[in-house]
Amino acid sequence: MDERIVQFIAGLRAAGVRVSLAESQDAFRAVGHLGVTDREAFRTALRTTLVKEHDDGPLFDRLFPMYFSSGGPPLIPSEEALTPEQQKMLEAAMRALAGDLSRLLQMLASGRGPTREEMEQFARQAGAGPRSVRRPENQPWLTREMLRRMGLAEGLAEQIERLMQQLAAMGMTPEGQAAVLRLIAANRDLLAQQAEQFAGQNIAQRMTEQPPTKMDETELMQRPFRDLSEAEARELRRLVARLAARLRSRAALRQKKGDGKILDPKTTLRANLRTGSVPFELHFKKRHLKPKFALICDVSESMRSVVEFMLRLMYEMQDQVAKARSFGFYDRLEEVSDEFIGHRPDEAIPLILHRFPYRPYGTDLGHSLCNFCGDYLDAVDRRTTVVFLGDGRNNYNDPRLDQFEQIKRRARRVVWFNPEPRYQWGTGDSDMLQYQPLCDAVHQVSNLSELADAVDKLFAAR
User: Fold this and answer.
1) 85 lies in some domain
2) What pLDDT digit, counting tens, does each position of 59-95 carry?
3) What's the DSSP call for residue 318?
4) Which domain holds residue 369?
5) Domain end (from 28, 48, 68)
6) Which residue(s) pair with 106 in the sheet?
7) What band does 40 get if pLDDT is binned at 50, 70 and 90?
8) Which positions ≥6 away from 51 have C-beta within 8 Å?
């Protein structure tokens, strides 16, 4: 246990938490007095001695289960959830469909989970490696990719339906089929917990091996959002205000440059009819240079860091905007503009993200587009630039391109910001290549530098 505590302290330091030698000694003394049998007392002892700043508390809470967990709850064996007769019929059905059922469904139905070697293989396939993910913020992403490699999101429903049909053909009662479905659903959730804990332990090991590094401002702005530590994210938040000030100045200069008067021939002719259309009185066009925006943001777990910095930038730029309305979506879409009324970003952004609790494979952009067209289409007119911020991943749901086209017909422009590398667009459950032709512009925004350039282009377009 002493070695694990040392690794945990090294992981905290790698993530940007300042832990001195004296504080480390205090942690060992506290654990020596309280012991390790009471998990909550053990956790409180470490938190009290190692965390000095309020902002480091959430990071401690995220790292603790990565270093001090048992590997996740075991799957439920079929013999514990089914009667002997139901179990025999299930085994016979699985043998009959042996060539059609994936290894995943066999594990879920039998309750015999993957070995550690198999979990390590799935993690490597998902991108975990000596030089890969090393940040606690990457745990949801790595978990999702591991489950995707296992086949949890692709084709599993069809296989379960085929298994149920085979059981019905063999004479299993509806009650027995319902028991099998409950067993598979319960084991699916337990397997997701196992993958989450394994991903966390993998990241914890990489963090312990990687010493903390100091980065200058330019390097920090180039670091991908998904790789930011808590300390680096805090530093970037401080940079946003200075960056937004520069962007505001550029937008204001463009507006001032565009203030030259443009003759309005129609109005001039009408006003001078009394003089035989001799233009004694000249009229000029009034230009509305400040843009209007409708921001539609994917607030799923993989997108939250990008959304936070986008909303911060737009908040700081609000004096250069005629009107902006913000919307968040996960499995549904809601307007979140009111959260910024009377709240600073530090308060507003947690309130927004809290409205969309995480659940695995919950993103449904197609349904959210229907919500927008049904309830909020008045936010878009011929002066509005609609900005989509998301990775275009839709969990194999209907992308509802017809609803997207309806928004495009009403808007002045439609722009998409995507944090994923372009080579990943259209892979797996990504519908990005279907949305891309319908957009006026698409920008990759994997870091703050790219995001700032994309936002600057929004204010440059007229």
Assistant:
1) yes
2) 788 777 777 766 667 788 888 888 888 888 888 888 8
3) G
4) 231-241+290-460
5) 68
6) none
7) confident
8) 17, 57, 60
